[in-house]
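User: Run a structure prediction on this.
Assistant: Running it now.
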Amino acid sequence: MRDDAQREKHRQYMRQWRATHPEQCAAYRRKAYARDPQKSLNATRSWKTRNPEKVRDWRIRNKERIAASARRGRVVHRDVLRARVYAWRRQHPERVNDLSRKSRARHPETARAGSQRRRARNRGASGKWREGDIHQLLIAQFGLCALCGKPLGPDFHRDHITPLAKGGSNWPSNIQLTHGHCNQMKGARCVASV
């Protein structure tokens, strides 16, 4: 039996040896994992539960490394992750509806943009725009309605100059900002006929 002093001396020796022989240590870990992956995973989990402060410190020091690994994992396992999300959504329809409702309430502009993109996609229109494009349009129109020329409020509409129903695209060049009532009066007509 070793006493505590001998154990500590051996630990220091092994720490020093591992520091000077990283390739051999990595090869040993790979072999051990290949022999019994579950045993290796259990040992890692056990160590992490015994050393939470070391785990936390390592994560703080290696944020970029962790993020890069997560990005690679999402790319490699995209289909698996997508299948998990679909399965969760099928198992929890009430929760999905609740989360969607809350998200639409918090971000009405994004929800409106999504529904307009879906409508354009269903009609087979090419192109898409982002909120940055809308912000640039607002500046280009000097904050005025494209149809009546009066100042726009916060609830302006994104109107297709050539309507989707008439074969118009969904590119920013075919979008104008209007009041809701001006857009509804225009309907599915082209601007020239209004």
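The longest helix spans residues 4-20.
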